Amino acid sequence: MSAHDGARQQDLLLRARAGEQHAFETSLLEYAPGLRAVIRRMIGHPEDTEDLVQDSLARAWQTLDSFRGDAGFGTWPCAIGVRRAIDHLRRQKRWRAEAQIVCAKECFASPELQAEVVGGLSEPSFVYDAEEHIAYCFTCVGRSL
Q1: Chain-centre distance of CA 11, in angstroms?
Q2: Is 18 helix (H, G, I), strand (E, B) or coil?
Q3: Alpha helix (H) residue ranges in 92-129
Q4: Phi, psi values for residue 41, rounded to 5°
Q5: What percent of the chain is predicted at pLDDT more than 70?
Q6: Which of 77, 42, 85 is nearest to 59 (CA)?
Q7: How far, in Å, are 12, 66, 80 from residue 16 at the CA level?
Q8: Where on the phi/psi map is residue 65: left (φ > 0), alpha (ψ -120 to 50), or beta?
Q9: Torsions phi, psi for 29 (to 5 deg)
Q10: Predicted TM-score (pTM) of this structure
């Protein structure tokens, strides 16, 4: 981050602390994708991820006066998001150890589900991301522990 960017972020933070919500939203624009990515890797479910991102940003706004500035401003909403994601996972039921096997058998038994999977893989916009897949695998393992 350049000195200009740092000064701009500091100005936005001061204005946000004075109650200017637009300044707060502007300051978080560059950090929201990282927050979303961290929560998505922890949770593994798109709708839950969006709910937790919104909840984390709302919590950051509500508790803005508690931000001490010991670390960069972008790490603060991310820390809130991680705590929210952990709380969310604790409230969830554990997945049965054989959950993926059961789902695979249901898919093999249903021509509709097979068509849905093949259709998704056939979409021109489909991209296989090994890193995303591995992150999802860790989510599955975490939910079955």
Answers
A1: 27
A2: coil
A3: 99-109, 111-122
A4: -70, -30
A5: 68
A6: 77
A7: 6, 13, 18
A8: alpha
A9: -55, -40
A10: 0.57
